[in-house]
Structures are given as structure tokens and as C-alpha cells.
Write a structure and sequence with these properties.
The protein is an all-alpha fold. Helix content is about 70%, strand content about 0%.
């Protein structure tokens, strides 16, 4: 059961209606839940005090959701940073896919030689960044994967 939204300008039924409405329930369901007709709920929505209370409650709910998302983002970033600091190639790649997805998108058609050179230049910069997080013993595997990706980009030709 929803807890009533407290607003002294509203009746207890109206306060409860506000709380149910911010959850996205239809007016007819809200009316049934609090024991009034749907016409009563519709009439309340035309009341300036009720409309203002509903708007304030929606704003408060949106702010709470934004804060929850921001908190979750901070926690996820802390975990990601810890994984990258521990040398996780998977975490580093996931971060780079999120921040620069165009670096990982394969074109539909084989690319031209000058595009491969540009791609290799980007990989050079990327490689410099990855060397800080990829253990030395895994670097050979990274290079092999990059070469395989370059070969795939050129339609199987050499780079």
C-alpha cells in the first residue's frame, strides 16, 4: 500500500491519490484503490492545490531517481577503475567501447589502405593507453588481436 503524500491542503484520500498517481497508475485504478469514483479523481486533477501537489511529488520522485542513478554510476565507475587498475583488459575494453564505440565498429565493406593507416594510428594511441593497464605478458595477445582485426577490416588482406 502506498504511503500518503503529506500535504496539508489535501484530504487524506487526495494525498494517497497523489502517491498512487506518481507510480504511473491510471486514474481509474487510483480511484478504485482509494475507494472513490474516477470522476472524483478527474475533478481533483482540475483542482489547483491537487495539481500543484502532484507536480511537486513528481518533481521529488524524479530528483530521487536522478540521485539513485548518479549514485549507481559512481559505484559502477569505482568498480571499473579498480578492475582497470588491476590490469583487466576486459574492463579497459568495456570502458573504451562505452567512451569511443566508433573505435570498435567494423565497417560493412572492406576499408581502403589510407583508412587502415588511420585505424593503425588510432590503435597506436590506444595501445599506448592500454600498455598502462595490460600486463606485459598479455601484450602479445593484444597485438595479435589488433592484427586480426586489421586483417578483417581489409577483407582478409595484409596490413
Amino acid at each position: 500500500m502506498a504511503q500518503p503524500y503529506e500535504d496539508e491542503a489535501l484530504t487524506p484520500e487526495q494525498q494517497l491519490a497523489v502517491e498512487w498517481m506518481v507510480t504511473g497508475r491510471p486514474d481509474t485504478e487510483v480511484a478504485a484503490l482509494i475507494g472513490v469514483s474516477r470522476w472524483t479523481v478527474w475533478r481533483w486533477k482540475d483542482d489547483p492545490a491537487f495539481a500543484a501537489a502532484l507536480q511537486r511529488r513528481h518533481g521529488a520522485r524524479r530528483a530521487a531517481v536522478r540521485e539513485l542513478i548518479a549514485h549507481t554510476d559512481r559505484k559502477a565507475l569505482e568498480v571499473l577503475i579498480s578492475a582497470i587498475d588491476a590490469g583487466s583488459l576486459r574492463a579497459a575494453t568495456a570502458y573504451l567501447r562505452m567512451r569511443a564505440p566508433h573505435l570498435f565498429a567494423l565497417p560493412e565493406e572492406p576499408v581502403q589502405t589510407d583508412e587502415v593507416a588511420a585505424f593503425e594510428a588510432v590503435l597506436g594511441h590506444l595501445g599506448a593507453a592500454l600498455r598502462d593497464v595490460v600486463p606485459t605478458e598479455a601484450w602479445g595477445e593484444v597485438v595479435d588481436r589488433v592484427r586480426a582485426a586489421a586483417a578483417q577490416l581489409t577483407g582478409g588482406g595484409s596490413t
